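C-alpha cells incoming
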C-alpha cells in the first residue's frame, strides 16, 4: 500500500516566538483516493401504489393537513380519561362477578375476569380455553414469580396502572410475564423503566441476560453499552462472576465488544487528529497566498510596499508562515532534506501549486516551477499528491459544514 509522508509544521508558535519544529507525519492510503459519493436520502419520499387522477379527499372537520396538529390530535385520542382508568381499577380490586381465579406458586389467588384477561393476552386466552371450570369459575396457574408481581401484572391488564415502588421491586418479573404472555404494552413500560432509572452496575449483567431471553434488543444494547463504558467496575460485581460460570460465551462476546469499541475509539481519535492536520495545512495555504499577495505584519507583498493598515491579520497560521519564509530567504543550506524548516516550506509551496488555479496571476513564488515539475512525476507520486489535496479540501468543507449547522440548526437533517 503506497503512502505519502508529508512533514509539515503546525504553523503555531512556542511561547518564545519560535516555530514548532516537530513535523507532521501523515500516512495517506492511495487506494482510498477514489472517495465515496454521497447517497441521496430518498426515504422521505414514497411512491403511491397506483397513479390516479382522483383529487385528494377533503380534511375531516376540526383537522388540518399540518403534521404537528395531526400528531397532537392522535395523541389526544390515545389518552384515556382518568375516570375510565378508575373504573377498570375498581373493577379489578372489587372483582365484581369474577369468573376467573389466577393461582400463584405460593398458594395465593387473584380474582379476575376471563373476558378482560383473555382480550389483553392471547396466551392467557389459550390457557382459559383449556382451563378447568369448577362452579362456573375457571382456574389458571402462573408459577415461577411472586404473587405480588402477578397481582401487579393482572392489574395492568385492566387499567394499565401500577405503583412505582411495585414496578421498581418487580420489574424483572413483570418483564418476564409481559414476554411470556405477549403483553407488549407492559413490556414497553418495563423496558423504559429499566433504561431510564433502574439500571445499575450491580444488576446490568443480569438484566442483559434477561433482555436476551425476553427478546428486548434495545435493552440488550443499552446494557452492553453500559458494561463497556464501566467495564472495570462491573467485572467486580457478583452478577459478572455468576455470568462467567454460567454463560462463558456471553463473557467472551462482551470482551470482543470491548476490544471492538476501543478500536473504534482509537480510529475516531486518529481521524480527528488527521483532520486537524489537514485543516492546518489549508489554513497555511490561505496564509501563504495572503502574505505573497497582500503582505502581512513585516513582510510586504511581492513587488509592492507593505501598507501599515495590513499589519492586522485574520489568518491564524500567518505568523508561523512568516517566520518560515524569513528563515527560507536567509538559510544558507536551503536544500530539501538538508534543513528541516526549508523542507517544510518547499512542501508547502508544492502543495500550493497543486491547489492553485490562477497560474498567470499567482503571487506565490515557485508556483510555476512546481507545476512544470508535476509533468515529470510518476503516476504513483501523482496519485499521492492528489489524495493529499483532496484531504485538505475536504477538511475545510467539513469544518464549514459543522459551523453552518451550529449557526443554523434548521440545516440539520
Amino acid at each position: 500500500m503506497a503512502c505519502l509522508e508529508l512533514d509539515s509544521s503546525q504553523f503555531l508558535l512556542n511561547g518564545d516566538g519560535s516555530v514548532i519544529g516537530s513535523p507532521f507525519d501523515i500516512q495517506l492510503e492511495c487506494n482510498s483516493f477514489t472517495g465515496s459519493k454521497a447517497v441521496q436520502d430518498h426515504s422521505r419520499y414514497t411512491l403511491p401504489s397506483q397513479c390516479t387522477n382522483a383529487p385528494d379527499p377533503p380534511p375531516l372537520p376540526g383537522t388540518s393537513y399540518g403534521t404537528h396538529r395531526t400528531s397532537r390530535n392522535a395523541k389526544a385520542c390515545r389518552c384515556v380519561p382518568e375516570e375510565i382508568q378508575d373504573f377498570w381499577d375498581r373493577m379489578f380490586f372489587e372483582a365484581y362477578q369474577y369468573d376467573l381465579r389466577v393461582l400463584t406458586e405460593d398458594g395465593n389467588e387473584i380474582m379476575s375476569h376471563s373476558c378482560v384477561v383473555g382480550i389483553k393476552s392471547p396466551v392467557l386466552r389459550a390457557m382459559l380455553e383449556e382451563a378447568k371450570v369448577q362452579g362456573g369459575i375457571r382456574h389458571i396457574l402462573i408459577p415461577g414469580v411472586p404473587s405480588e408481581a402477578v397481582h401487579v401484572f393482572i392489574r395492568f391488564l385492566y387499567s394499565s396502572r401500577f405503583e412505582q415502588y411495585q414496578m421498581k421491586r418487580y420489574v424483572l418479573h413483570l418483564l418476564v410475564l409481559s414476554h411470556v404472555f405477549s403483553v407488549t404494552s407492559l413490556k414497553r413500560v418495563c423496558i423504559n423503566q429499566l433504561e431510564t432509572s433502574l439500571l445499575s452496575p450491580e444488576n446490568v449483567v443480569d438484566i442483559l441476560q434477561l433482555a436476551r431471553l425476553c427478546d428486548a434488543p434495545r435493552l440488550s444494547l443499552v446494557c452492553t453499552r453500559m458494561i463497556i463504558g464501566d467495564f472495570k467496575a462491573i467485572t467486580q460485581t457478583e452478577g459478572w462472576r455468576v455470568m462467567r460460570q454460567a454463560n462463558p460465551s456471553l463473557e467472551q462476546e462482551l470482551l470482543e465488544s470491548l476490544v471492538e469499541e476501543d478500536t473504534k475509539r482509537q480510529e475516531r481519535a486518529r481521524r480527528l487528529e488527521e483532520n486537524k492536520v489537514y485543516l492546518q495545512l489549508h489554513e497555511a495555504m490561505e496564509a501563504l497566498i495572503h502574505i505573497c499577495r497582500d503582505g502581512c505584519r513585516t513582510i510586504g507583498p511581492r513587488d509592492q510596499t507593505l501598507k501599515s493598515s495590513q499589519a492586522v491579520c485574520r489568518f491564524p497560521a500567518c505568523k508561523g508562515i512568516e517566520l518560515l519564509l524569513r528563515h527560507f530567504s536567509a538559510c544558507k543550506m536551503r536544500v530539501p532534506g538538508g534543513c528541516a524548516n526549508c523542507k517544510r516550506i518547499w512542501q508547502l509551496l508544492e502543495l500550493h501549486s497543486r491547489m492553485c488555479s490562477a497560474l498567470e496571476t499567482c503571487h506565490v513564488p515557485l508556483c510555476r516551477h512546481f507545476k512544470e515539475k508535476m509533468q515529470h512525476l510518476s503516476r504513483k507520486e501523482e496519485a499521492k499528491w492528489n489524495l493529499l489535496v483532496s484531504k485538505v479540501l475536504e477538511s475545510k468543507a467539513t469544518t464549514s459544514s459543522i459551523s453552518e449547522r451550529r449557526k443554523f440548526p434548521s440545516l440539520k437533517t
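note: The domain at 271-301+313-399 is CATH 1.20.1020.10 (CREB-binding Protein; Chain A).
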